[in-house]
Amino acid sequence: MLKTTTAFSIFAFNLLLMTTAYSQDLAFSKQLFDTYDAYRDSALTHRRFKQADILPLIDQLKSDSRFEVTKVGESVEKRPIQLIKVGNGPRKVLLWSQMHGDEPSATMALFDIFNLLRTDGPFEDFKKQLLAETTLYFVPMLNPDGAERYQRRNALDIDLNRDALRLQSPESVLLKGLQQSLKPDFGFNLHDQNTRYSAGPTPKQATISFLATAYDEARNINPVRERSMQLIVGMNRVLQQFIPGGVGRFSDEFEPRAFGDNIQKWGTTLILIESGGYPNDPEKQFIRKLNYVAILSGLQAIATDSYQAESRSEYITIPENERYLFDVLIRNAQIMRGGKPVTVDLGINRYEVNVGNAATFGYRSTIDDLGDLSTFFGIEEIDATGLTLVPGKIHPQPLRSLTDLKKYKLDSLIQQGVTTFRLATPSRATTHLSPVHLLQPTTTPVRPVQTGRIPTFVLRRGNQLRYVFVNGFWLDVSTGDNKLATGVIE
């Protein structure tokens, strides 16, 4: 009986210690979240920045003796790639971002982290411990050529995250060289993912997703991978405060060409973070903030070894990423087929199109699915019960040029169901700022609505107009709720 009581007392004591540690971690992350604006780098406000925008920020670090900035290589097009070192502790951590040029959320967060490490404030004890217990190595932009074009691949059109074996790109050679020479204990592989991933089969966007990458086909778990799972369990707990139900787990199917899988195989505990979508955050500024909190919380767990108290079994409880979301889901619309009414749901997705030098963008949307979509969800949803979907009106007067649009009161025309103009002469553009659908001189408008086509139409009850859709964006005529955005040229 005494032994049983003693064992229970030890268990209760350990549970108390764990609960106290969890409370402290949550309080620390809440403080990071609440004070974030003091450290947010104001030079980065949009996600389509280029290397030229961050080089001055990197140069600023050179004036701080705590930071060591080194050029460690060049991209295909000879853009410099920098390694930023801070700290002198025994636990080595390598963090790299933007190995895909169009995945910049974490890059912004890294510069926010640099600001915290450089600025006096309420985190002095944390910084002192972090820099004494860890040595941090950052590569803020591994693929500057891709960032220049805002594209996934590098200037050789190679996906760096599928080049860990052949090493055909200088950026890939550089990353493997850093892992092999530094031999980091931990690695943070920082990405963005499709904004339409859901956290399990739910309407919740997977705003942040984690992955403890597999190192073999069987997805075995050794101590290296177990540490990944333990760290992710703690970071998930932290983020649930701010995005409850909005954290996903990326598929751990083994990809033998990927850096994450191979770096785990080469002995570095690898934490992959994917930044997804969040409502009304097109520039991913809130998601940037979540990266800042998650990464710093993970680094604290590494500096203190607190992750060792986490149970890897909780990793599997994080819902896996699923594809249950459309950008817009219209439910129960009525369309006419063969003279008969048919009730359908429409799943609409909006795709970015680079404009100019890729510093800005427009949209080209498509109807990606049509039919019974009752098992899916929309980031935006419209209940079209009792409404009939019909084509919008085409304005009778052709446009000689895009500037002719200025002659018209577009708001008034759209309220009347006019969605489309025809161009008198061809245009090389594919998108434009005015929320109307333009047809090239030889383009035939699609009637009736079809999958794979641009969603421009109206929803009405009898003769009364309710919704006007142009290029996948919409106006609610009855309420005035206006989500119309960029137009499209077809």
UniProtKB/TrEMBL annotation:
Peptidase M14 domain location, by residue?
45-302
Sorted keywords for this record are: Hydrolase, Metalloprotease, Protease, Signal, Zinc
Name the active site residues. E255
Q: Which InterPro entries match?
A: Peptidase_M14 (IPR000834)
Source species, domain of life: Bacteria
Report the CDD domains cross-referenced here: M14-like
Q: Does the keyword Signal apply?
A: yes
SUPFAM superfamilies in UniProt: Zn-dependent exopeptidases (SSF53187)
Cofactor needs: Zn(2+)
Which PROSITE patterns does the UniProt entry name for this protein?
Answer: PEPTIDASE_M14
Q: Where is the signal peptide?
A: 1-23
Q: Per its UniProt record, what Pfam families does this chain match?
A: Peptidase_M14 (PF00246)
Record family assignment: Belongs to the peptidase M14 family.
Q: What is this protein called?
A: M14 family metallopeptidase
What lineage, starting at the top, does this entry show? Bacteria, Pseudomonadati, Bacteroidota, Cytophagia, Cytophagales
